[in-house]
Structures are given as C-alpha cells and as structure tokens.
C-alpha cells in the first residue's frame, strides 16, 4: 500500500496511528505522511519500534494465558489495528483451533485488510466496524453476535487503544463493556504513560495530535481505574516486559532494564 493510491475515502495526507504502528513494526501498509510522523516520534523515542514489538509480545502472552490457564475460548479485540504476524486468532489457534475471535476497528483501511487476511478463517473469526466510544453498539453487532456468545466468558482486548481516547471518560466506557459480558470474562489492556521521561512522552504525544487520532497520556492511577470492577491477576499493573515473561524474552528483558517503559499493562478478571 505504501506507494499505491489510497482507497476511496482515505486521506493519505493525514497520518494514521494504525499505519504509524505498522511502520514501527516494519510493515509496508503505510503512506508517506505516516512514515514522516513516525520518524518525528522516533526522534524523541527511538525505542518506539521495540516498544511496538514488546506490546505485541505482551498481547501474545496474555492470549496464551487466557486460553491455556483461564479456559477462555472467545475474544473481542477492539482497536485491533492492521493485521500483523502473531494476531490473536493465530496465537489462540496454536492451542485450540476452535477459539473464536471478533476483530473490531473503526478504520476502513484496517477493516479492508483484516477481512482480506481472514477470508479463510470465517468459521472462527469475524471483522466488524465499531468504535470504543459506543461500546454497546460493538457488542450488539449482528456479525459479532453470530460468532461470540456473550452469555459465556469472553476476553475483551484493549491493547494500545484506550490512549487514543481523549475526553470520553474511558473508565466509564470500559465499565459499560464489563457490564455487558458474563462473569468470568477478562480484560487485557495496555496504555502509554508519562511516568518516565514526561517531557519526551508529551513531545511524542504532540506528534499524534497532527494525526487522525491524538494520544492522551495517563498516570498509573488513571490506568488502574480502567480495571475497576475487575480483579487484576498477578503480577498486576506492570511494564510490558514484566507481565508473565517467558524464557524467550528473559535475556532481552534484562538488557532493557535501563530503558523507559512508556507502557503499563495488565489482565483483569470479572468475578
């Protein structure tokens, strides 16, 4: 897509966070404006590509835990972003091919790419258009409900998405999602914070204000409030690398101890 004309209705002149994230991950589904904005972020946070990979690694570990240890067999991934290797259904299906996954995004480019990628997995995945600011509409979507049974436990994934909400009272939105799912459901969430290198964090966030969606930095306590009504499972709200690290990333994790975390993450259980 990088050198092609944009699809109808897409303004390639405006940077898009999903395409910037794709650029950080080494993908090619981005335009010149996305790359230019991403490079501005890299000037103040050169570790951004590594953070994007660490965020995806947290997602994969959380999915494995929920399938293998919590018995979760259905996921709703809100703000899924552009498809990347190691997507939720790929990770889950390594352990149980019957796990069902609904991908939700409000970006037409993301939707088009996701539907093309998932065309061969219609029995266990669906991609729907939805906006986190209207949570009830997401969970009422007929396509989603054809795959996801909300009377049974489900994992809601809000990975690197809530910080794109500004004054929408995110804790209330997450609470409305929690109230719509069955007991035993889980919340998986990661969020940028300004706890470290606050000046650089704010400078990086300023770049996103020029994009189609800005970034809101939140404190540890504000991020903790997003889990209200959930019991945070061990190890609680922690930096990306510290959530149940596996043997593969142990040495790399130790080598990154001196770097700022930028993200906090956690997994909560709804009693």
From TrEMBL:
Gene3D superfamilies in alphabetical order: Vaccinia Virus protein VP39 (3.40.50.150)
InterPro entries: SAM-dependent_MTases_sf, SAM_dep_MeTrfase_SAV2177_type
Record's protein name: SAM-dependent methyltransferase
Organism placement in taxonomy: Bacteria, Bacillati, Actinomycetota, Actinomycetes, Streptosporangiales
């Amino acid at each position: 897509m990088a050198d092609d004309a944009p699809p109808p209705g897409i303004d390639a002149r405006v940077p898009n966070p999903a395409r910037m994230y794709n650029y950080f991950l080494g993908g090619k589904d981005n335009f010149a404006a996305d790359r230019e904005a991403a490079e501005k972020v890299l000037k103040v946070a050169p570790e951004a590509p590594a953070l994007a990979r660490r965020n995806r690694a947290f997602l994969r570990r959380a999915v494995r835990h929920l399938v293998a240890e919590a018995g979760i067999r259905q996921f709703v991934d809100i703000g899924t972003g552009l498809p990347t290797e190691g997507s939720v259904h790929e990770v889950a299906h390594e352990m149980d091919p019957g796990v069902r996954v609904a991908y939700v995004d409000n970006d037409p480019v993301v939707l088009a790419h996701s539907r093309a990628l998932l065309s061969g997995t219609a029995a266990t995945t669906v991609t729907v258009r939805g906006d986190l600011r209207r949570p009830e509409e997401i969970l009422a979507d007929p396509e989603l409900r054809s795959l996801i049974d909300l009377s049974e436990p489900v994992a809601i994934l809000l990975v690197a998405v809530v910080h794109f909400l500004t004054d929408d009272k995110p804790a209330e939105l997450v609470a409305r999602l929690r109230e719509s799912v069955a007991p035993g459901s889980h919340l998986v969430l990661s969020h940028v914070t300004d706890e470290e290198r606050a000046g650089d964090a704010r400078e990086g966030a300023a770049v996103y204000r020029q994009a189609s969606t800005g970034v809101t930095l939140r404190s540890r306590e504000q991020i903790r409030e997003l889990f209200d009504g959930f019991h945070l499972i061990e190890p609680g709200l922690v930096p990306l690398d510290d959530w149940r690290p596996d043997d593969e990333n142990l040495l790399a994790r130790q080598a990154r101890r001196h770097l700022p975390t930028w993200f906090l993450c956690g997994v909560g259980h709804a009693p």
